[in-house]
Amino acid sequence: MSLSHFRITRFQFARDRVIGDSQVRADDVNIAALELVSETGEVGLGFVQTLFTPLPDQTEIETVFENEVWPALKGHKAIALVHRVNRPRGGNQRAYSLPFHEAVQVALWDLAAKEAGLPLHVLLGSRRNRVGAYASGLDFHLDDEAFVSLFSHAASLGYSAFKIKVGHPDFDRDLRRLALLKTCVPAGSKIMIDPNEAWTSKEALVKLVAIRDAGHDLLWVEDPILRHDYEGLRTLRHAVTWTQINSGEYLDLEGKRLLLEAHAADVLNVHGQVTDVMRIGWLAAELGIPVSIGNTFLEVGVHMAAALPEVEWLEYSFQNFDHLVDQPIEIRNGYAYAPDRPGHGLVLSEKARTEWIRPKRLARSELGAPPENPRLPGKSR
């Protein structure tokens, strides 16, 4: 089943709530579906996403993909491409003009698993079909009422682990949010915090002591300081013995390897690039370092989570993307379930293709009402 052609469908719509952290905020969605089509008509699906600026018009996305990416894919079998490694030399070591990297990996693996007639997690070597999911609010810009509503709703759905955004210039606000969280989730819940690199190494130590002394037990603190400060992360890891340092989200594959080599994280955080995640996940397994799966588009990361031996948690952030596919990933009673359908199990919805396609770039004021989010009540937005 060699690759014969591709399709790109551009989407742009409003979010149902403002998401963000101590560094960024976003209230719209800018994505494009990438479909790689084989000679027999099988389709591999991935998504191109930009968080802070709209994608160009669909015709421009197609042109860039055809010129920069398609020549290396056309005529090949997906299963022959998923493990291909290029020599990182000179000008050949460069990013695409648009963020196709993850979309291509996900689409190729989807098609490769379909060629093999297997669910993706099985092709990757899974021994299970579910993984613990923690509720993440992307909640930094929510007011207290919406914050409480969101996490109360998550608790009602059976989640037992929760991550909130911290790193506010007013540290008392961080402490207040942690106290508020205690009022709306069950006693004994696992709690994580994420400053998104808001702190320095010594500042992080002082604040983590203050959080502990205020009576808050943390499963981990995620990205407390700058991503490349391996010495600071390692120092913090040894100084803070009562919780774990989770890092790696912002690092590429090489950066994650250096992080592991520096012994600078208790937990390695990875996202949605299937090949990259499996490569670094195997290395982490050799070193006995746990791996967490951060936000992946439409939770496709459940497949890698089920396949890697060191993964206990997958992040779920209640984003309004489910309308894009026929069957979203099932999340029930605090677990995400990997589909048993061939491939990753996500198929672009024809309704989304016709009703939500936006071939031309729109101004934010033109987006209209957001698509429905069936997993989140309105008062949590």
Give the topology, please.
Layout: E1 3-20, E2 25-38, E3 43-50, H1 58-68, H2 101-116, H3 120-123, E4 130-136, H4 144-156, E5 161-165, H5 171-184, E6 190-194, H6 201-213, E7 220-222, H7 230-239, E8 244-247, H8 253-261, E9 267-270, H9 274-287, E10 291-293, H10 302-307, E11 311-316, E12 330-332, E13 335-337, H11 350-355
Parallel strand pairs: 4-5, 4-11, 5-6, 6-7, 7-8, 8-9, 9-10, 10-11
Antiparallel strand pairs: 1-2, 2-3, 4-13, 12-13
CATH structural architecture of the largest domain: Alpha-Beta Barrel
At the fold tier of CATH, the topology name of the largest domain is TIM Barrel
Radius of gyration (CA) equals 21 Å
What share of residues is helical? 25-40%
- The helix tally amounts to 11
CATH class of the largest domain: Alpha Beta
Report the sheet-strand fraction: 15-25%
Question: For this structure, what is the CATH homologous superfamily of the largest domain?
Answer: Enolase-like C-terminal domain
Average pLDDT, to the nearest integer? 96
Tell me the count of domains.
Answer: 2
**How would you sum up the major sheet?**
8 strands, parallel, barrel
Q: How are helices and strands ordered from N to C? A: EEEHHHEHEHEHEHEHEHEHEEEH
- Shape estimate: globular
Tell me the span between the first and last alpha carbons.
44 Å
For the biggest β-sheet, the strand order reads: 4-5-6-7-8-9-10-11
Oligomer: single chain
Helix/strand-derived category reads alpha/beta
